[in-house]
Amino acid sequence: MSLRGIFERYPQRRYLMFGGKGGLGKTTFSAATAYYLARQGKKVLVFSVDPQASLSDIFQRDIFGKGPTEIIPNLYAQEIDADKRIKEYQEEIRKKILDMYGLEEIPEEIESYIQAAAAEPAMEESAIFDEVVDIVIRGGYDYYIYDLVPLGHALYYLSMASVYDTWIDKITALRQQMREYDQVAAVLRRNKELEEDAILNELLYIKDRINKSSQILTDKRTTAFFFVLTPEEMVINDTIKAAQLFAKFDVPYAGYIVNRVLPAELKKQRIPDYLRNRLSMQEHYLKVIGERFGDQVLAQVPEMERDVTGIPMIEKVARAMFGDF
Amino acid sequence: MTEEKGGLFRAIKEFVYGLAAHDSARYALKSRASMEHLFILITMVDMMGVPIVPPYYSLMLLPYVVPQIATGKRRMLREKDLTDALA
User: Fold this and answer.
1) Of A4, A33, A51, B47, which sees the most CB atoms within 10 A?
2) Cα(B46)–Cα(B44) distance, rounded to whole angstroms?
3) Taking CB atoms and an 8 Å limit, are A126 and B29 in contact across chains?
4) β pairing state of A15-19 and A223-229
């Protein structure tokens, strides 16, 4: 089936991801797919979970940390500024503490904890993860396209949902058990009013968000993950390994897209040996890809004559991916 | 007279509560306190240098445990187990 066919057959797949090694065209395909869908009248948000995002470069607009920005009608793009998110989050926590306890300033011990927690190595990823949860829960778009980080990190990002999912379930269950003891004591002491457990409420709020996000990432009905690869040995091997790893996290992959395919017609022309060798090598690896992935290969996108930046080039890639529209 | 009656009734109520439910209530509260201790240990243990996943969300809970942090730390430092006795 073609890539276009997949989109037409499964319109309920609203969460789209392109994954692959670094520099293979994930951002290009994310932008081109967003462009195609927007031109079909769908409201699309393409956002980056990569701290070194390149959506600004491809759309030739500085969108870093500026929230969803309209690129063309129906197409919105967003690059998450993790540092800004963390700073806002810290400020939110400080304000909550001051309000809750009527304090003038944050106690030293607490302040140093807030600052130290923000410097934790996983903080940036967690902040991006949480912002993405915000984005998908807030809604408002027909399609969400995740411009993912390279494979290893993407796996880390996707596994974060299931790790957090398990963690939050366990911790909430513990807190609920604590609540039951409170209730027993209250009944025995004939206390009619039982104070609300604010921590339990907050945990249930976090649990709801994480569970929703985790469900989205693993739901085959609503999510499609596309592997991007090029006809090269190492890329093919890495993609096979990654596909096996991703399967462990129930990532619902929908197919493979081959990028940077040199036009076969070149072979008929007078070309240097260097290029002829590249073409022969490509021919071999396209055959390997065909044997290995069969009809899961949804599109072959040619190597473009120049960098893919700016709307006209994005449109060209979209046509190569989806055919004329 | 009515006051005396009320006092007596209260005393009987207290007596019955003490006899039947006081110990159970104490036990429930004690278990609750131990679990509170465990909860702080699980969510805030990174304050003591032991890493925990995920700090982002433990920070979200921080405002609610501000009063317990000082006492929690004291309790954990005081806590002893069998291996301490053997040492």
Assistant:
1) A33
2) 5
3) no
4) parallel
B49 φ/ψ sector (left φ>0, alpha ψ -120 to 50, else beta): left
- Find the closest chain A residue to B65 by CA distance: A199
Q: Distance between CA A209 and CA A138 in Å, rounded?
A: 11
| Whole-angstrom distance, CA of residue A292 vs CA of residue A286 | 10
Model confidence over A279-299: pLDDT tens digits?
Answer: 999 999 999 999 999 999 999
ipTM of the complex: 0.73
- Residue B51's domain comprises 2-86
A208-250 residue pLDDT tens: 888 888 788 788 899 999 999 999 999 999 999 888 888 877 7
On whether the CB atoms of residues A144 and A45 are closer than 8 A, the answer is yes
Residue A186's closest chain B neighbor by CA?
Answer: B25
How many structural domains does chain B have?
A: 1
Q: How far apart are CA A186 and CA A189, in angstroms?
A: 5
* A109 with B43: Cβ contact below 8 A: no
Query: Tell me, what amino acid is at B13?
Result: K
Residue A212 lies in a domain: no
Is residue A295 assigned to a domain? Answer: yes
Separation of alpha carbons A15 and A21, rounded Å: 20
- Could you give the percent of chain A with pLDDT greater than 90? 52
A199–chain B Cβ distance below 8 A for any pair: yes
Q: Which of A58, A63, A100, A90 is nearest to A79 (CA)?
A: A63
Residue A66 is classified by DSSP as S
Give every strand in the sheet of A297-302, ordered side by side.
A69-72, A75-79, A44-48, A143-147, A15-19, A223-229, A253-261, A297-302
CB contact under 8 A, A113 and B29: no
Find where tokens 């006809």 sit: A231
Q: Could you list the residue range(s) of the whole structural domain that residue A290 is in?
A: 3-84+124-157+221-322
Domain total of chain A: 1
Helix, strand, coil shares, percent, chain A, to 5? 60, 15, 25
A164 within some domain: no
**Do the Cβ atoms of A70 and A100 come closer than 8 Å?**
no
Cβ neighbour number for residue A277 with a 10 Å cutoff: 10
Is it the case that residue B51 has pLDDT exceeding 50?
A: no
Does residue A204 fall inside a structural domain? no
H/E/C letters for each residue in A255-312?
EEEEEEECCHHHHHCCCCHHHHHHHHHHHHHHHHHHHHHHHHEEEEEECCCCCCCCHH
